Amino acid sequence: MAKKKELCRDKKGLFVRNLGWRKTPSGYSQKKFYLGRQEPQARIASLKLEQLWDAVCRRWEAATPPTPRLSSKPNPRHKITTETISTRNGPLTALHSIGVGELDFERPGKPVWDEVSLTIAEAIRNGEATVRVPLPRQLGQSGLTSPSIGQWLDQLRRDVPFIHIELLDEELQGEAENEIKTEGDKLIKRGRRMLFQGAGGETMHLALDEYIKALESKHVNLDGTVKTLRTTTGKEPSTRQMSSPGYKKPSPTPGRSSPKTTAQRQNRHY
């Protein structure tokens, strides 16, 4: 679609690239871009302009549905006949047309440079990393609110990812960025929820949290101290009990002396 990949020099030594179309009162004219005298910078700008024109064509195709038209004139003696064919699933009626004009689908017009795309092209031609574009007239005149403008800006950025795009109106730019951020946060939360449900509804971290809560309710007092393990048989706690995190050595029973050793009993006779 109106591409000429080779750079040309004009009589003044400037690199020139003819690319795309502009709408004129009499039809269409090819757009000419002057890219300076430095060949490396001119080639880089030419490649980016070509990417931009490809994006313009894709956006035009998405926004312009094809319309039917007759690709051949019908014969004045055209006729339509039917034929019934027997199949396993029952009779099938076939339609035959003889001399009837054929329909073809094509999009009216052709893609053209508009105010927004030309603003981006000018920034590329000047080697800029950021461009501030005006709001399309049809978008501003339709009375749409800023969320729709935010969606338009987000789609434009996805279609033209090789340069940062902002709106010329700073107030609309702020509203659009807030709308894009809000929508992005919703998508992130939705993705997390989908992953959570796909994992069975419970993660390892949640399971560990529940296990810790169960341990605390069983082995920790209200004041935060660890509960003492007590035996009901009067026997010494087992090795397993003594190694438990909540084990606390019991203190001697009040009023009862601890058993004396054999050496202590023998010393009483001397």
TrEMBL record:
Region (Disordered): 226-270
Record's compositionally biased regions (Polar residues): 228-244, 254-270
Name of protein: Uncharacterized protein
